[in-house]
Amino acid sequence: MTDRNTLLASLRLSDRRLTHTLGVEKAALTIAARHFPALREEEVSAAALLHDCTKEWTAAEQLAFCDSQGIGLDAQEKACVKVLHGRTAAVLAERTFGLPAAVCDAIRRHSTLCERYAPLDAVLFLADFTEENRRSLACVRCREYYEGLWRCGDPHALEKALVFGLDAVIRENLEDGNLILKDTLESRNAILYRLSADGQG
Amino acid sequence: MTDRNTLLASLRLSDRRLTHTLGVEKAALTIAARHFPALREEEVSAAALLHDCTKEWTAAEQLAFCDSQGIGLDAQEKACVKVLHGRTAAVLAERTFGLPAAVCDAIRRHSTLCERYAPLDAVLFLADFTEENRRSLACVRCREYYEGLWRCGDPHALEKALVFGLDAVIRENLEDGNLILKDTLESRNAILYRLSADGQG
């Protein structure tokens, strides 16, 4: 697999986003070690390093890249270019760096999760939302909420923190009059079903 | 078609809900006359009168009725009995009163709308949320917002008020930790696409 230094050297990001990216890597390694110790560290690290590698592209650049790579976009993706960076970053991860499918999937879904998300998807989503450089109130609270649940030994710490993060994403979309993405809704509902089945709903 | 007096006499509702029901009928007739003058008044009235006719049933009664009528429920419906009253009321409207499909559909969808909602669906949803007896802040604001848009001649008054109402429903579900229903999301997104295509997004 492409090594960490090669991935890191490939990044063309502002200082601010590079700091965020390294924060996500650190958080992801911690979350993965807690909840999914079978995940390979180098895959967790690769997903974190590349997740925002195209986020500073313009909307026109996102769309042109998708076009050049033969990636068809549905109505939702065309109307919501903001989350296309997950899609384009996943294509780079796969086609430029030959990273494993689980890594590319996690990168693609990192803004939304999806109904049947995988362990690495959950790790990257939560790490992205809670890494130590995040300063928005929703992120700070989610970080404190998750850490508190974990310290208290709550067996559903990860799932509860994911719902907290997804709620914040939905709330932000409501405030801004933006679409709420189907994957965001389906992942949240899927977790609520599971928590409810475990008597935590 | 079953006449208004027969439908009204069939209702077994608390005074509070009967007042709400008559308020919905009044609001629905106003909204329909403004936006869809081709809708038949008796159909608008029937949809309004029956929309909550089973809302005071217990969850067990909702589920038993669905079972007795051979109505299969998906995971979302089983987990969210609160909105089942639309489903059961629609069955009564169809099987007991022989009401037209458009009326039964509007009753079934009155808590959520759906991606390709019909005129009567929109009328009933907005009337239910904004009728004059509603006192919650979200409902009062939605009523004032809609009336203001209408008075100002906004050509998208109906659609904007529907999004306002759907946003409030989603926000309430977030606050309460409840599922957000797929139809709620899809109807909201569909309206946002349309408003955006008209330069209003």
List the helices and strands and how they pair.
Two copies of one chain form a homodimer.
Chain A: H1 4-10, H2 15-35, H3 41-50, H4 59-68, H5 75-79, H6 84-95, H7 101-108, H8 119-130, H9 137-151, H10 157-176, H11 182-197
Helix pairs in contact in A: 2-3, 2-8, 3-7, 6-7, 7-8, 8-10, 9-10, 10-11
Structure description:
2 copies of one chain form a homodimer. Chain A has 201 residues and is mostly helical. Chain A has one domain: Hypothetical protein af1432 (Orthogonal Bundle). Chain A has 11 helices and no strands. In chain A, helix 2 runs antiparallel to helix 3, helix 7 crosses helix 8 and helix 9 (137-151) runs antiparallel to helix 10 (157-176). Chain A is globular, with a radius of gyration of 16 Å. The termini of chain A are far apart. The mean pLDDT of chain A is 95. The interface between A and B is medium-sized, with 21 and 21 residues.
List keywords for this structure.
homodimer; 201 residues; mainly alpha; Hypothetical protein af1432
Strand content of chain A: under 5%
Distance linking N and C termini of chain A: 40 Å
Which structural class do you get from the secondary structure elements of chain A? mainly alpha
CATH fold-level assignment of chain A: Hypothetical protein af1432
Most residues in contact: chain pair: A-B, 21 and 21 residues
Overall body shape of chain A: globular
Helix-residue proportion of chain A: 55-70%
The CATH H-level superfamily of chain A is: Hypothetical protein af1432
Oligomer class: homodimer
Q: Can you give the mean pLDDT of chain A? A: 95
Low-confidence runs of at least 5 consecutive residues of chain A = none
Question: Main β-sheet of chain A: number of strands, strand sense, barrel status?
Answer: none
What is the N-to-C succession of helices and strands of chain A? HHHHHHHHHHH
In total, the number of strands of chain A is 0
By DSSP (H or I, 4+ residues per run), the number of helices of chain A equals 11
CATH architecture of chain A: Orthogonal Bundle
Regarding CATH, which class of chain A? Mainly Alpha
